[in-house]
Task: structure prediction
Amino acid sequence: MKKKQANKPIIEIVRATKIYPPDVVALEDITLSIPYGEMLFLTGMSGAGKTTLLKLICGIEYPDKGLVEVAGKDMNRIKANEIPRLRQQIGMAYQDFKLLADRTVAQNISMAMEVAYHNIRAIKNRVIELLQKLRLEHKYDALAGRLSRGEQQRVAIARAVANSPTLILADEPTGNLDSKTTKLVMKLFEDCNSSGTTVIIATHDEDIYRETDYRVLELHSGRFLAQEDMTTSTSNNMP
Amino acid sequence: MKFINTIAVQTGRNLQKTWPTQFMTLLTVTLSVLIFSFFFLIYTNIIKTGEKLGDDLRLTIYLEEEPVLEMQAQLVRKIINFSPVEEIRFTSRNDAFKRLATQLGDNVDVLDDLDASFLPPSIEIYPQKNLNTLAQIQRFSEYLSTLPGAVKVQYGQEWIERFNYFTKLLQIIVFLSGILLIMTATFMVAYTIRLAVVARQAELEILRLLGATNNYIRTPFLIEGFLQGLFGSSLGLLALFFLYRWIQLRFTGPGILQLVQFTFFSPAIICIIIFASISLCIGGSFSSMRKFMRI
Ligand SMILES: Nc1ncnc2c1ncn2[C@@H]1O[C@H](COP(=O)(O)OP(=O)(O)O)[C@@H](O)[C@H]1O
Ligand SMILES: [Mg+2]
Result:
């Protein structure tokens, strides 16, 4: 493992292991360093540990062994009152969306900005802007529970991006999307990345990283298959 | 400012969603404030009346013989030695007879056949204001009955004793309704907040994931408790005020309430009742959150 950055990376993971009770080893001896402003793909079969790794990064789960440091904070030692501030800086699009079915699309997206006390007009403008980018502007007032899976997925992505976080974690963001919409979503992530946001995309969808220049890390049963700086060699990757 | 705005919007949203329960809680708080302050109002007025009646307290010693001047002076000395008094007045047989005649007015002829000396002479004692407990009065009266020539001492024993028991009973009622107020306010508000927390469990979980601080989550619930306390107690006191006005209108003119000068709470008491209710309701909402939100 090489640590070549002059300034501190946004994510520093050293020999982290996560075991779900009783004895499911979801991640084993993971070491990873991600500098500010990088965009990268985290791949691997279903059950490889992608979601777990993202959860360690945003403090939903904690490592049983090893170190996970996010924005300079040791996640095993972080104080309870520091977690909200950190989470406001991390936008996570969950694999299962975690939307409120009885709220409108706009209300769901707004929540991410309301917790950071943005004013109402700024929130509204940002929501409209994101919905336009994702071709969902006509669903502004629709209840989230009434949307198709693909639409809900985009709402979840919009919410992750809304607060302009420094780190975006997207868990299978294109799992329910057709190729056209996938392009829209990838474009949104690239836009965020080019304005300086660190973006981590966990996916088993080979199509979106096959010809990419971004770093691709492949997990296999909770371990990195190859060295960090290896490029795509994903012949036995299952969708 | 942004904080206040966001929290206000959040609170409004909560209230919109849970208003039926909120309304029931408000009614309960209103009702218990009404019950408590009703008894408390009666109690304070009775106490005030008692003080006033105490001012008019008079002990009468009936004597065997009309005391000569020298004897009068001796009696005065003995009385003052035991307890300082405002005034001591001697009433001779003749004075007593004349007073009765004036009291009878037109019916004075019933006295025609009677001897002017059939009424006993007496001493009337107006004690000082600090003599106000039943026990003190009783002790004084016992002493007076040992004075030479005293036949009997009267001070409206029965009435004062009854009054005394009545105020004690009221004290208990005020105390009980105060406990009722505390229990209903805290428990009902805690219960409503608990329902609201449970109803919003999914939302609260997502809010945490999005980085909502404890204050962001807690404040709307505390504001709900505050509003319950404020409006509940204000409505209760308002209802009591209308009840009070209605009674006043119904019972003006000569009668009991003329004797008992009924007054409403002072602004200070009103503020204390409202403030106490608010504190109780916020306390209820706080305890509920501690239990159900891992805060
Ligand atoms: N909460 C949990 N409790 C127990 N086992 C879990 C839990 N979450 C995930 N796992 C297990 O951990 C492994 C990794 O899961 P996950 O990180 O979700 O993989 P991926 O996102 O790559 O599909 C899987 O074997 C999964 O069954
Ligand atoms: Mg997953």
